[in-house]
Amino acid sequence: MLALLVASAAVAGTAGVAAQDDGGPPAPPAAYYGDLTLDGDPAPAGVEVTAYIDGEERGSYLTAEEGSYGSSSALEESLTVRGEPGEEGATVEFTVNGQPVDATVEWESGAVENVDLAASASGDPPGDGGDGSDGSDGSDGSDGSDGSDGSDGAAPGGSDGSDGSDGGSTGGTQAAGSGPSPSGSTAQTVDGTVESVDSGEWAVSVSADSVDADATVEADLGDALATDAASVEGVDVTVDEDVAEFGLSVRQLGSGEAADRVGELGGATPVSYLEFEPDGFESASVAESEFSFTVDESALPDGASPEHVSLYRFDDGWNPVPTAYNGDGEYVATAEGFSVFAVGAAESGVGVAAASLESDTIAPGELAAVSATVENTGDAEGTAAVTLRVDGETVDEREVTVGPDESREVTFTPRFDETGDYSIAVGDETAGDLTVESTESSSAEGDESEESDESGAETADAGGSGDGVAAEAFGIDPLAIGGVLALALVVGGALALRRR
C-alpha cells in the first residue's frame, strides 16, 4: 500500500511538471530588493530598475524611496521577475535607468532575494579632467611649458584631461573653458555666450567665435525657457566643420503656432514646443546636440509616468529622439540637427477589452473564476487599475501594467457565500450572470421526487388505477382472505380424519 502511494505521488509530480511544460499555470515569479546607488550615492526616488533574462525584459520597478528598491516584506511591492518553463537557474541581469549594472542572480521561481545594485548615472557626461595650465605667454619668443595632464574623469568612460597647449607667440587658440568633450574625445569645448533677447520673436541667443570642427559649444540656458510644465536648461552642440561665427536662436512655441507650422505632435501628449534655428552654420553641420531639460510630473496626462516622456524632433514628421530619464524629473536627450522640437509624454491606452465567467453556476462558498483581457492600444507602456464589480459594486481591484500594443490576461477568484443571482463585470466589460445555488437543496428536491415516485408505485400496486385489484374495507386484500379460509379447511379436514 505504501509503495502504491509513493508511486502515485511520483506520477502526480511528473504530471505537474509536464503540465507546466505544456503551457499549464505559470510558475510564481521571483522577487528582488536591495540597496540602490548611482555613482556611489544613494539613488533618488523615481529611478527605474529593469530585469532581463536572455535579453528579454521580464519586470521593472520604479523606486519610491531614496537609496533602495523593493522590499523583503510580502506585503510591500518588489521587483517581480517572471520566468518561463525550463528557465530555473537562468541568469537575471539588471539595468538602472537603462544603464547595465554588474550584479546578476540566478532565477528561481518564488524566490525573494536581496540584490544590491550600483550603477552610473545615465546621461551624465564623463567627468572632465582639469584643464592643463597654459604655457607662459610666448611674447618673449620662448615656448611656454606644457600644461600638466588633467585628472582622470570620475565616471566610467571619462577621458584624461588634455594636455595644456604649448606656449608660443600666440598662446592657445580656443576660448577659456576649453577641455575634453562629453564624448570623451580630445576635442575641445567652448562656452557659448547666452543672452536673453528683449525684442523680436526669439527668447534666447547662443553665440561663440571660431569653433573648430569636432568642438562642442556648451550653453547653460538657465531658466530663460522655463514654463510651469517644462524647462530646457542646457544645450551642447558638436559641429563637424569649422564655424567662424556660431549662433543659435531658441524660443518657445505655442501649441497653436506649432500646429500651424509643422502639425500637432502625434502619438503623445505635448508638454511644450521649442524651435532652434542655427545662424552661421547649417543644421546639417551638427554632429550631435545634447539637450538637458526638466518636466513637472503634474503636467503629465493621466496614466503617464515620467518614463513616458521623450523629446521629439520634427523632420519630415515627428520622431522621438533618444531620451534618458535621470530621476527627479530630469532628462537628457540627443539629436542630430535643429528644427522644431516637442517635449511630450507618450500615451498609453490600457483598458479591459473582454471579460468572461469560467462557470455560470457555483455552490455557496465556492470560488468563481472571472477572466479579463487587458490590452494597451497606446504607444507607451501603461498601468491601469482593473476593477471587479459585482452588481455594480467594486469588490476587488488590481494594478495591471501592459506594454504598447500588447495584452495580458487577468483572473479574479471571488468567493460567494450567499445563494442568489449576481451580475459580474470587469471594468466596463460584462462577464455574465452568476448563479449561486445550494447543492443540498437540489439534492433534497431530487429525494422528494424519488419518494413521491415510490409512493405512487405503492399506491398503484395496492389498488390504484391500472391492473391492480381494488382494496376492500380496512385495506384487506380478498385474495389474502381466501388463502386463510383454504388453510382453515385443510386443517379442519385433517383433524376430522384423525378422529375417525
Automatic annotation (TrEMBL):
Residues 126-135, 155-171 have a biased composition (Gly residues). Residues 65-90, 118-192, 428-469 are annotated as: Disordered. The keyword RNA-binding does not apply. InterPro entries: CARDB (IPR011635), Ig-like_fold (IPR013783). The chain crosses the membrane at residues 479-497. Residues 357-429 form the CARDB domain. Keywords: Membrane, Transmembrane, Transmembrane helix. Residues 445-456 have a biased composition (Acidic residues). Residues 172-187, 457-469 have a biased composition (Low complexity). Pfam families: CARDB. It comes from the Archaea. This is CARDB domain-containing protein. The lineage of its organism: Archaea, Methanobacteriati, Methanobacteriota, Stenosarchaea group, Halobacteria.
